[in-house]
Amino acid sequence: MRIGIDISQIVHEGTGVGNYVREMVRALLTIDQTNEYVLFGASLKKQHVLKQYFNTVKYLSTHVRLMILPIPISLLEILWNHLHIVPIETFTGAIDVFWSSDWTQPPLKNARGITTIHDFTVLRYPESFEGTNIVNVQKRRFAWAKKECKHFLCDSQATANDAKELLGIDKSTIVYPGINL
Asked: Pfam families this protein is in (predicted)?
């Protein structure tokens, strides 16, 4: 099976989502020597972070490659969350599954989609984000994810409960974030 993973969030070093993606990918590559992985990252200014990360994980599996799209993630937010055009397979080639995380949800041509939902803070407490566009971005992203994804990973039981209550999502699995020892 060919699995595509959006690793774009790792360019935001020191963030929870960036650390989550880094460690989940590292763990997957360590334990799975059967499937092929295409690590997809979009960044204009921080491509070096994507390349450095790839150089640290490429030794974990002989079935992994990196695909960097040299554009700002904000452009993908427009292409994928607003217009919802240009399937991920345009960049990754044919894949069976695509795992997205956080800000963007690409259209899928043939791949089955899976995404991680970390929390619903923006929907539970939108007043905390006044003066920003974050609430609208996440609402659009959740709407596309609900249409594109066959399954959802949630960081906690509370997030899974919110997914059901706020979005009507029943198809989720709780995967608690691990720790890096």
From this structure: Glyco_transf_4 (PF13439)
SS3 assignment for 41-62: EECCCCHHHHHHHHHHHHHHCC
Task: For residues 86-90, give the mean pLDDT.
Answer: 97
List, for residues 114-166, the tens digit of each pLDDT value: 999 999 999 999 999 988 888 988 899 999 999 999 999 999 999 999 999 99
Cβ atoms 30, 3 nearer than 8 A: no
User: Distance between CA 146 and CA 167 in Å, rounded?
Assistant: 8
pLDDT category, 181, cuts 50, 70, 90?
A: low
In this structure, the strands spanning 64-69 and 2-6 are unpaired
Helix (H) or strand (E) holding 61: none
Query: What domains are there in the chain, each with its CATH number?
Result: 2-174 (3.40.50.2000)
| Amino acid identity at 145 | A
SS3 40: strand
Q: Which residues pair with 5 in a beta bridge?
A: 39, 99
Whole-model pTM above 0.70?
yes
- Which 3 state secondary structure label does DSSP give 36? strand
Using alpha carbons, list the distances in angstroms from residue 15 to 8, 52, 66: 12, 17, 22
C-alpha to C-alpha distance for 21 and 10, rounded to whole angstroms: 7
